[in-house]
């Protein structure tokens, strides 16, 4: 009998997971390796491949559940669901598939397997018109444009490629964490550390902004499809007005001048983060769901 034997996700799983990426939703971050790698500490992410099926699960106090299994042969999805149910029956692990987008939900529903569906607003991903974030044009972006102009007028700054500023960027991230310490942010810092120290092995681009010689903002992002960039991380000194707006626009202008859509990921149900993401006027929310298998 086939069993699922999970192991902690590491950088060594990159080639495996990226080989399944064409089977995922190209607009969504869930199965994207760098997103999995960065957040693996927070979610204790684990991986298993059986019979050309990729299984991923989150096994932490923050969240427990499977990500949608990716099958090289789409007809194997019922088999994948059976393996998940067998694993849950044997181990007592929740029979949940989490962070599920609409495309994957359609695939699951097409199997005819009984399941319960609950909307997951906290994990919905924010999709933006990239050109509007680059240019800050239009009435809706007027206040953002004013802050951008205020920053470039009032501060002496230098923009550097993140590859030339990994140390200062990590120091800035540690300063950002002070006063915000909790399980999520502390594990996020570990993910930032790992991504910055492994840039030569990851498909990440980014910028760092120095104000008066000190790194005060940085960002990490990557193109995940011909028309979409995924922004993994964006940190800035809250006390410098307009800095967030500046680095957001500069990153798209310098590193991703021709993408159409910017995916700025989810708000995780955090009120302040939701307010900030909504203030950028998303073009669309990529809906997410939690499914309990029956």
Short description:
The protein has 294 residues and is of the alpha+beta class. Helix content is 37%, strand content 28%. It folds into 2 domains: 7-123, Gcn5-related N-acetyltransferase (GNAT) (Aminopeptidase); 125-265, Aminopeptidase (3-Layer(aba) Sandwich), CATH 3.40.630.
Describe this entry's structure for a reader.
With 294 residues, the protein is α+β, with helices and mostly antiparallel strands. It folds into 2 domains: 7-123, Gcn5-related N-acetyltransferase (GNAT) (Aminopeptidase, 3-Layer(aba) Sandwich); 125-265, Gcn5-related N-acetyltransferase (GNAT) (Aminopeptidase). Helices cover 37% and strands 28% of the residues. It has helices at residues 14-20, 33-38, 40-43, 77-91, 102-110, 130-135, 142-154, 166-177, 183-197, 243-255, 271-279, and strands spanning 7-8, 45-50, 53-59, 64-66, 70-71, 96-101, 115-119, 125-129, 157-161, 205-211, 214-225, 228-236, 261-263, 284-286, 288-293. The strands form 3 sheets. The protein has a 7-stranded mixed sheet with strand order 9-10-11-12-13-8-14. A hairpin with a 2-residue loop joins strand 11 (214-225) and strand 12 (228-236). Helix 7 packs across helix 10 and helix 8 packs antiparallel against helix 9. It is globular and about 65 Å long.
Ordered list of secondary-structure elements with their pairings:
Layout: E1 7-8, H1 14-20, H2 33-38, H3 40-43, E2 45-50, E3 53-59, E4 64-66, E5 70-71, H4 77-91, E6 96-101, H5 102-110, E7 115-119, E8 125-129, H6 130-135, H7 142-154, E9 157-161, H8 166-177, H9 183-197, E10 205-211, E11 214-225, E12 228-236, H10 243-255, E13 261-263, H11 271-279, E14 284-286, E15 288-293
Parallel strand pairs: 12-13
Antiparallel strand pairs: 1-2, 2-3, 3-4, 3-5, 6-15, 7-15, 8-13, 8-14, 9-10, 10-11, 11-12
Helix pairs in contact: 7-10, 8-9
């Amino acid at each position: 009998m086939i069993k699922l034997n999970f192991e902690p996700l590491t950088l060594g799983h990159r080639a495996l997971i990226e080989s399944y990426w064409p089977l995922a939703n190209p607009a969504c971050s869930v199965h994207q390796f760098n997103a999995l790698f960065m957040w693996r500490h927070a979610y204790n992410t684990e991986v298993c491949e059986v019979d050309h099926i990729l299984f991923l699960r989150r096994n932490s106090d923050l969240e427990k559940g499977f990500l949608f299994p990716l099958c090289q042969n789409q007809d194997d999805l019922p088999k994948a669901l059976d393996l998940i149910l067998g694993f849950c029956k044997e181990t007592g692990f929740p029979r949940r598939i989490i962070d599920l987008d609409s495309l994957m939900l359609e695939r699951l529903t097409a199997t005819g397997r009984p399941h319960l569906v609950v909307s997951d607003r906290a994990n919905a991903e924010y999709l933006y018109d990239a050109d509007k974030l680059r240019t800050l044009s239009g009435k809706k972006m007027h206040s953002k444009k004013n802050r951008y102009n205020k920053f470039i007028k009032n501060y002496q700054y230098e923009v550097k490629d993140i590859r030339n500023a990994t140390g200062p960027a990590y120091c800035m991230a540690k300063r950002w964490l002070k006063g915000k310490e909790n399980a999520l942010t502390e594990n996020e810092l570990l993910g930032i550390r790992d991504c910055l120290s492994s840039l030569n092995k990851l498909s990440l681009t980014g910028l760092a902004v120095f104000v008066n010689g000190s790194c005060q903002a940085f960002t990490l992002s990557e193109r995940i499809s011909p028309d979409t960039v995924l922004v993994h991380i964006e940190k800035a000194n809250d006390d410098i007005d307009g800095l967030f707006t500046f680095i957001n626009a500069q990153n798209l202008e310098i590193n991703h001048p021709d993408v159409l859509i910017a995916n700025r990921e989810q708000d995780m149900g955090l009120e302040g983060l939701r307010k900030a993401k909504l203030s950028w006027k998303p073009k669309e929310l990529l809906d997410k769901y939690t499914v309990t298998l029956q």
